[in-house]
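Whiteboard transcription, Tuesday session. T.W. wrote the structure tokens on the left side:
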């Protein structure tokens, strides 16, 4: 049987109803996701003046995965005649943008050839060609043999296929076509073995390169409504992404990691420690663990992150999965020396600049600030003041329940999701009340609530390593409301030197003595600093408060947008990713803490942007 007859029987018809349905969705700014029987897919996330195409005879799913990173693509069997569909899409898009870019990609079996073959049209397309070449060149960091070849001669499609559209028709439609042969360097061709780690990098670089090159075309050739190439990225989240995100958030929240690594008898052990003249190491008790870490790990690695098409979100979720795995291991090892070792890999070692800043603070302020003349609040008085702030944010987030609880099983003040937990033993100086409320409520609860309003659940459950930035902006809030006292700054520095002491092998009593004898901390303060550092078997997390503050100050000094940091819970290395997701419309703009509206706060922010020393941030 001839190939023409076979094609007539197997090629699905792209009929008028399908074309009308697709064009109507595009015009109404809806998401297009249509399948051609079992022969292919068209996906268009939003109005975009570019389209990526992969025609296959035998589909390479990993090559398809590259195109699925884009906001507009067609992946289709090469027997399908795409002309009617391309005419309809191009006509609809050029009505809006006046021009359109079609980019056809195909896999080139490498067999030692590592060249990206860019087939460009003649004319004024240099910026697009340059962006493609420069983007693919990044891969030479991983393989020095990778090169680009650029040709402006025909054909601009795979050699065995006909052009998608003829030149005359392209001119009428206001469209141009690029063709790019992609070497399959992400796998070992003889046995089709995939290089998984390299493929992830390839996947990410391909995604960014295509968007940047499309943006160069749009910027030069169209009525450009886009301010940044990232705005070309996908807006909608598919089912696999939402499922993976939800499952990770459930596992993370179900751990209640900090609650399960915080002693329930810290006050009682303080009394015993003091009665024994600080000579007997405290014995801490913890909440029982109502989960099986092994079962949770099994769930964790069943989360289908490998199926997520969006490289940015896959990167975020993969990092979170690694963090959860380590936290589950720490729960298993709670009370052993292994707890500390895993914790060190999770929270990292103390950076030299953080330890240096801590020692500088303790030298500058060798003693705590004397606030003895100030009124003190007990737990009920503090809770009454905090309730006013809770009530304000309850109106901002009416669908989220915000509460205050006074409890016997915690030390000081802490937040658990949307609850402000206050120790029944609390006694706090009135000058610190507003600062702590803005730390806990105006920062931690507000970022949690903003995260809850986002489509990604990790935005409230917290990205990998989110504690550092969270605590950085929380301490920043204390300064902005004029509540960062010498005593508080000394406490943050004391935590860093205590962590350093613990990491270097000192025991609880040795670190306690270091704080009292060398740095003039009161026995009570030294005990509670040491308790937090040695809980569970040794937790270095408390060093992140000062480290996070240093990060935020550097960010502001470089002109960073503070408002972005309230979108949810993430770390400084995620800020560019958050900006990308905001540009793409995946994330919503956050509600900003109301303390930022105060005139004195804006004045202090201006000072920070001009650059000041941390030791100059203390209140009078």
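and on the right, the sequence the group agreed on:
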């Amino acid at each position: 049987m001839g190939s023409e007859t076979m094609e007539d029987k197997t090629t699905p018809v792209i009929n008028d109803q399908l074309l009308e349905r697709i064009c109507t969705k595009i015009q109404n700014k809806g998401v297009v996701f249509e399948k051609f029987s079992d022969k292919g897919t068209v996906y268009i996330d939003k109005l975009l003046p570019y389209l990526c195409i992969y025609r296959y005879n035998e589909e390479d799913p990993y090559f398809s995965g590259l195109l699925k990173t884009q906001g507009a693509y067609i992946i289709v069997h090469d027997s399908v005649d795409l002309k009617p569909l391309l005419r309809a899409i191009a006509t609809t898009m050029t009505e809006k943008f006046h021009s359109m870019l079609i980019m056809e990609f195909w896999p080139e079996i490498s067999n030692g050839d590592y060249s990206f073959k860019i087939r460009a049209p003649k004319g004024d397309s240099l910026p697009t060609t340059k962006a493609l070449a420069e983007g693919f060149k990044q891969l030479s960091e991983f393989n020095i043999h990778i090169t680009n070849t650029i040709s402006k001669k025909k054909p601009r499609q795979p050699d065995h296929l006909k052009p998608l559209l003829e030149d005359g028709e392209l001119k009428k439609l206001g469209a141009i076509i690029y063709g790019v042969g992609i070497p399959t360097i992400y796998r070992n061709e003889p046995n089709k073995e995939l290089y998984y780690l390299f493929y992830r990098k390839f996947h990410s670089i391909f995604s960014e390169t295509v968007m940047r090159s499309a943006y160069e075309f749009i910027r030069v050739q169209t009525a450009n409504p886009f301010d940044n190439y990232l705005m070309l990225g996908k807006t909608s989240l598919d089912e696999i992404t939402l499922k993976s995100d939800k499952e990770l958030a459930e596992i993370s929240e179900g751990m209640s990691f900090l609650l399960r690594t915080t002693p329930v008898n810290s006050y009682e052990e303080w009394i015993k420690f003091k009665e024994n003249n600080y000579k007997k190491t405290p014995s801490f008790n913890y909440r029982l663990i109502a989960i099986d870490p092994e079962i949770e790990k099994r769930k964790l690695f069943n989360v289908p992150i490998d199926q997520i098409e969006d490289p940015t979100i896959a990167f975020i979720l993969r990092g979170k999965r690694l963090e959860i795995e380590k936290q589950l291991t720490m729960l298993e090892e709670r009370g052993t020396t292994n707890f500390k070792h895993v914790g060190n890999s999770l929270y990292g070692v103390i950076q030299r600049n953080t330890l240096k800043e801590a020692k500088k603070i303790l030298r500058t302020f060798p003693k705590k600030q004397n606030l003895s003349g100030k009124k003190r609040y007990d737990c009920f008085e503090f809770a009454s003041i905090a309730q006013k702030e809770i009530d304000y944010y309850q109106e901002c987030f009416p669908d989220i329940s915000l509460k205050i609880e006074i409890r016997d099983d915690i030390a000081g003040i802490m937040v658990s999701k949307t609850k402000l937990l206050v120790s029944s033993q609390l006694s706090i100086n009135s000058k610190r009340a507003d600062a702590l409320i803005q730390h806990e409520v105006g920062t931690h609860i507000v970022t949690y609530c903003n995260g809850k309003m986002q489509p990604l659940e990790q935005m409230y459950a917290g990205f990998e390593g989110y504690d550092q930035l969270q605590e950085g902006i929380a301490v920043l809030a204390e300064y902005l409301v004029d509540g960062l006292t010498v005593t508080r700054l000394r406490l943050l520095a004391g935590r860093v030197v205590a962590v350093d002491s613990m990491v270097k092998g000192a025991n609880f009593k040795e670190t306690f003595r270091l704080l009292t004898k060398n740095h003039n901390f009161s026995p009570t303060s030294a005990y509670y600093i040491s308790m937090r550092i040695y809980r569970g078997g040794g937790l270095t997390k408390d060093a992140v408060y000062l480290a996070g503050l240093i990060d935020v100050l550097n960010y502001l000094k470089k002109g960073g947008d503070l408002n972005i940091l309230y979108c949810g819970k993430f770390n400084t290395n995620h800020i560019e990713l958050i900006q990308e997701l905001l540009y793409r419309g995946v994330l919503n703009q956050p509600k900003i803490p109301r303390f930022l509206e105060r005139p004195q706060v804006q004045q202090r922010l201006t000072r920070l942007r001009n650059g000041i020393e941390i030791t100059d941030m203390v209140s009078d």
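Someone added at the bottom: The chain has a mean pLDDT of 91.
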